[in-house]
Design brief:
Length: 750
């Protein structure tokens, strides 16, 4: 069987064949253009058929024929059609794939702006890859099992499934509100996912990677994670900082240590795998190199999870369930019958996640994949956090920022701009309401909005909206064109490194250069001189062309804004290949005669008044929930009892009332405060780890309870002569113990 190329080479030796071959080429070019149109525009066959009037069946036929002559006739027409079909088929299938995911979010509560950043950033990368011609798969979704969900549902008086249905629907609503272009929204309660998790668990058990044992350790309920004493930070969960409780139960374990050396070697030989580099160093030094403990992968203390098929009293532990969504969501089958989509897309190109879950994605997940004999994702990027400017977001403070509140005040694309632009590559970003207003006014309303409006207004004022290229160029044009045509490559370089904020800065650099060009050319002055009419037309053409290119580059980040700009300029959306070419705007086109303001300037005072209403609602809702909780059941805390003591033991301790006369933070310590405490006629220095709960200035003058005969000890290099007595609630919040009534400093507590 000859290939087409072999057959063509043979026939091209015949002059008559060559003559006929050349004659049919224009027709073949038309057919090729039709096929290319679909692939470059990301159209379905049906969409292309509607636009062109070509029968869909014919389009399908063009794209499905194989590169051989087994069932083809050898007449010239068929041969030439076959040539075109084969080349188009190859062009279609050579299209590079790009598989990108967000984490799947835990639907225990409404997601805040930090979660929104992650999804919008992923969307920007997905859209950008589509622009460059990639066949993109963008996966997001929700992680819906676990003890926390079970408890939340119980509190709400509904089933766990009803609870996650409600919250997942809300999450999906927010992602749709933010105009994210995800291809699939997976839920771990999906039947096909649950079935695969059960098969994966059984496979790993059968091959000896999972075994049954007995677990005793310290458990963090919100994180659904066990920890050893050495892994705790200040006695609390190293991931979320909340209290942990002792737990003991039968469980299945995964042999993490079996694969640890292989993972270490992989990370060392694939420096791009974990990014930024600081995250890689953290994983290696804090977890992998010290040695991995076997991982608990099942639970019996709750029921809301995927049952272990061969031992149904156990449910699958959250991470073996959740992480596998990245393969089940594209059709992975544990029995070897994976979908064509899975075979095409895996390994994933990028998992974009928050830095707080980097350990699970760069240690647990790769090891699970190794055990399944699957390749590892090409890259895991742990992005920083977006923090509230006045401290950690808290419902009780009323300062939690939600995407829908922002959209109500600023609009969708403005919010997309905020979260993408304000997040640094590696360090945490800061968001405040005042900063949002500043960005709205300076970057969006002034730099971009005013530029577009001025350009359109001048085109209408001077030429009735008609934009004409005259060729009346001057030297100042060259620099503008150089900046505009270079922006595509600069954006590409930043996006290749996942520096989304920097990529947007490059695009807005283009718009700033356009504003400078207006100042340099002074169109209003040119308009006064009839002899300079051609020059004025050229200036306005250059502005329209530059804005068009900038708007097309902006689409990945602010898609609605791009659409609005192009519509007002009467400009066609450019292909990626055209975005470094200047002068493609059709001369003689007419811009809109009714330009719309893209972004309205805002008054910060008016915005803050609206913010106060939002925050008041948050506080009120929190207070109402707390009141309802207190009505239902008075809060109590059970602690592990210590060994009994005698009265003589108790009598050895001396407690007195002390008055705090000064307080300062201990240098180089994240948790220590140094107090000067008056006890009777003496002043004692006492060091206490309550920095997270008290500002130094707020403690001065407080009467506190002091253990005065505790042996002095050095803490962080400072001598401590006693101990301040505190109480700690179930959430780990600490408060100093104070006498109910006024008591003099030194009064004995007995």
């Amino acid at each position: 069987m000859k290939t087409f190329e072999e057959y063509k080479k043979q026939q091209m030796q015949d002059p008559e064949f060559v003559k006929e071959y050349e004659a049919i080429q224009p027709e073949m070019d038309v057919i090729r253009a039709i096929v290319n149109a679909r692939t470059s525009q990301n159209l379905t066959q049906n969409e292309l058929a509607k636009r062109t009037g070509i029968n869909q069946a014919d389009i399908s036929k063009l794209e499905k024929i194989r590169n051989d002559l087994a069932s083809r006739t050898s007449d010239l027409s068929n041969l030439m059609q076959f040539n075109n079909i084969v080349s188009s088929y190859l062009e279609t299938n050579d299209k590079k794939t790009f598989y990108i995911t967000t984490p799947i979010y835990y639907p225990s509560d409404k997601l805040h702006i930090g979660h929104t950043y992650c999804t919008v950033a992923t969307d920007a990368m997905a859209r950008y890859k589509r622009l460059t011609g990639c066949d993109v798969m963008f996966l997001t979704g929700t992680d819906e099992h676990g003890q926390k969900i079970e408890l939340k549902a119980e509190e709400a008086g509904i089933t766990p499934k009803e609870f996650v249905d409600n919250v997942s629907t809300e999450i999906k609503r927010i992602w749709d509100l933010m105009n994210t272009s995800y291809d699939k929204f997976i839920r771990t309660t999906d039947a096909d996912h649950e079935a695969q998790v059960q098969k994966i668990f059984k496979k790993l058990y059968d091959q000896g990677d999972i075994y049954k044992g007995y677990y005793e350790g310290l458990y963090c309920t919100p994180c659904e994670s066990f920890f050893t004493e050495s892994q705790l930070v200040d006695g609390k969960c190293p991931d979320c900082g909340r209290p942990v409780t002792p737990a003991k139960e039968e469980a299945y374990f995964f042999k993490m240590s079996k694969y640890a050396p292989r993972l270490i070697d992989y990370i060392n030989t694939h420096p791009e795998f974990i990014q930024p580099v600081s995250r890689k160093n953290e994983m290696m030094n804090n977890f992998l190199l010290p040695g991995l403990q076997d991982l608990c992968v099942s639970r019996t203390s709750f029921t809301w999870g995927i049952p272990v098929s061969f031992d149904p009293k156990h449910v699958t532990y959250v991470w073996l369930d959740a992480l596998t969504n990245y393969i089940t969501g594209i059709g992975y089958d544990c029995d070897g019958n994976s979908s064509e989509q899975f075979n095409k897309l895996w390994p994933a190109d990028l998992h974009l996640i928050g830095k707080d879950i980097i350990r699970f994605h760069t240690i647990y997940w790769p090891i699970f994949l190794m055990a399944l004999d699957l390749p590892l994702p090409k890259q895991v990027f742990g992005h920083p956090w977006l923090l509230q400017g006045d401290g950690k977001m808290s419902k009780s403070k009323g300062n939690v920022i939600y995407a829908d509140d922002l959209v109500d005040l600023f609009g969708v694309d403005a919010v997309r701009y905020f979260v993408l632009h304000e997040m640094p590559f590696e360090n945490d970003g800061v968001i405040t309401w005042e900063l949002l207003v500043e960005r709205m006014n300076s970057d969006l309303a002034n730099t971009l909005g005013n530029l577009v409006n001025r350009t359109i207004s001048m085109s209408n004022k001077y030429f009735g909206g008609v934009v004409t290229k005259t060729g009346a160029a001057e030297e100042v044009d060259d620099d503008l064109k150089a900046v505009v045509t270079a922006t595509k490559a600069k954006v590409a370089a930043k996006m290749e490194e996942l520096r989304v904020a920097d990529a947007m800065t490059e695009i807005f650099g283009l718009f700033k250069r356009c504003n400078k060009y207006i100042d340099e050319t002074m169109p209003w002055a040119l308009a006064k001189d009839e002899a300079k009419k051609d020059r004025l037309e050229e200036v306005l053409y250059n502005l329209v062309e530059s804005i068009t290119i900038g708007a097309c580059l902006l689409e990945s980040f602010m898609p609605e804004t791009t659409e609005k700009i192009l519509a007002q300029l009467n400009a066609e959306k450019r292909s990626y290949e055209e975005l470094d070419q200047f002068g493609l705007y059709t001369s003689g086109n007419q811009v809109t005669d009714q330009p719309q303001i893209l972004f309205q300037r805002l008054d910060v005072k008016e915005v803050m008044e609206k913010v106060e209403v939002i925050q008041a609602k948050q506080k009120a809702a929190m207070a109402a929930a707390k009141e309802e909780e207190e009505k239902a059941e008075e809060a109590v805390v059970d602690v592990e009892p210590k060994e009994e003591i005698t009265f003589e033991d108790f009598g050895k301790m001396q407690f007195q009332v002390g008055e705090i006369i000064s307080c300062e933070p201990v240098k180089k310590s994240k948790k220590l405060l140094c107090f000067q405490v008056k006890v009777g006629s003496q002043t004692r220095q006492i060091v206490s780890g309550i920095k997270a709960y008290y500002k130094p200035e707020d403690t001065i003058g407080m009467k506190v309870m002091v253990l005065t005969n505790l042996k002095p000890a050095k803490l962080a290099g400072m001598m401590s002569e006693g101990m301040l007595l505190c109480a700690e609630d179930a959430e780990g919040n600490v408060c100093l113990m104070t006498p109910e009534k006024a008591m003099p400093a030194g009064a004995e507590i007995c």
